[in-house]
Amino acid sequence: MFAICIESSHARGLGHLYRSLTLADGLRGCGLPLHFLVNDDPVALNLIRGHGHRVDVVNLGSDNNWEASWLLAHPSVKVWVNDRLDTSEDHANRVKSCGVRLATFDDRGAGAAVADLHIAALVFDDTGSLLGRRILSGVDYLVLDPKLAGLRRVRETASAWLVTMGGSDTWGVTPRIMDALLSLGQGASVVLGPSFKHVADVEAVQARSPSDFFTVHHRGVPSLADEMARHDLAITGGGMTPFQANAMGLPCIVVANEHFEVPVGRALERLGGSVFAGFHQDLDLSVLHRRLQMAQMSQAGMRAVDLLGCDRVVKALRNLAEEGS
Asked: Which SUPFAM superfamilies does this UniProt record tie to the protein (predicted)?
């Protein structure tokens, strides 16, 4: 069995959760059992249970060796998977001391050095300093839903715009983007994630806008992939979403919500399917006025991301579990 340990909150965002859910669906599709461990976040718990996965609430910040207590109660676990960014060496050692293999995602913490497998698909700067016994880096290991392949198409013009800044949009970038689009005279569909807390600011922009200028989806949409498939250009954060969009042929304007997303935004621009608008505190909104080469960007995005990354990661985790048998 696999234990998938994640952290989810308004401040942390939901990107780790969505990636882990895709991974979990891939593991389950191969007949591999799993169990989620997450902090007490109602949004995360509802989403995990909605996907039909088992989940336990744990105190991630505790130093009382909760990891050993949980593993003792679940002796079938072969691999522990962290998707929490910076993990500590103490935590990693506590997991490893129980005789299980340890995998981690995009981990710059000291705990990565102890990991048997480090999957770093979103690390694009200083990759030589990545830690771990085995490291898999680059866009080939992006955990994206393979079903996106059925939604691929080339965009020729930027007619329908979409704004989706993640599950929480911690810093309230969405209303700032809406205000800039209003000044530009460009309407858009706007997706507010399930942990979004800046509704009053969004409503203030709407109050200044013509009727139906913005279509606002509160608490997310049934399928973000289906929503992206209906649009020609997306304004997104610098996490997994622009890779998902580019894989579908949807060009993006990328905003870095956190400092670690800055190199991601620059990498996406180099891959050709996106343009980078900078860090959220210093946004270059002039990119909204650019005449983008839509067909060229659309095709470049699909070339860069082949949608086989989830299969590659599931295979690597399965091999890791077999090593520990």
From this structure: UDP-Glycosyltransferase/glycogen phosphorylase
Bridge-based pairing of strands 34-38 and 55-57 is: parallel
Question: Strands 79-83 and 188-191: what pairing?
Answer: unpaired
Which candidate, 47, 58, 112, places its Cα nearest to that of 82?
Answer: 112
How far is residue 144's CA from residue 154's CA, in Å, rounded to a whole number?
19
What torsion, rounded to 10 degrees, do the Cα atoms 283, 288, 289, 294 define? 140
For 199-268, list the strands marked E by DSSP. 214-217, 233-236, 252-256
Arch. (CATH architecture) of 146-304: 3-Layer(aba) Sandwich (3.40)
Fold exhibited by the domain 2-144+308-323 = Rossmann fold (3.40.50)
Task: Give the separation between CA 262 and CA 278, rounded to whole angstroms.
Answer: 7
Cβ atoms of residues 239 and 264 within 8 Å: yes
- The answer to whether the CB of 4 falls within 8 A of the CB of 25 is no
- At 168 the three-state DSSP class reads coil
Evaluate whether 2-144+308-323 and 146-304 have a shared fold: yes
Model confidence pLDDT, tens digit, residues 247-264? 999 999 999 999 989 999
Q: Is 164 helix (H, G, I), strand (E, B) or coil?
A: strand
- Could you tell me the residue ranges of all domains in the chain? 2-144+308-323, 146-304
Nearest CA-CA partner of 225 in 152, 123, 167? 152
Distance CA 186, CA 170 (A): 24
User: Minimal CA–CA distance to 174: which of 280, 64, 21?
Assistant: 280
Rounded Cα distance, 137 and 175, in Å: 34
Average the pLDDT over 175-191 and give the result. 97
Q: How many residues does the chain have?
A: 325
Beta-bridge mates of residue 206: none
Q: How far apart are CA 167 and CA 43, in angstroms?
A: 10
Helix or strand holding residue 79 (H, E): strand 79-83
Q: Parallel, antiparallel, or unpaired: how do β-strands 2-6 and 79-83 relate? A: parallel
* Spatial contact of 137 and 316, defined as CB atoms under 8 Å apart: no
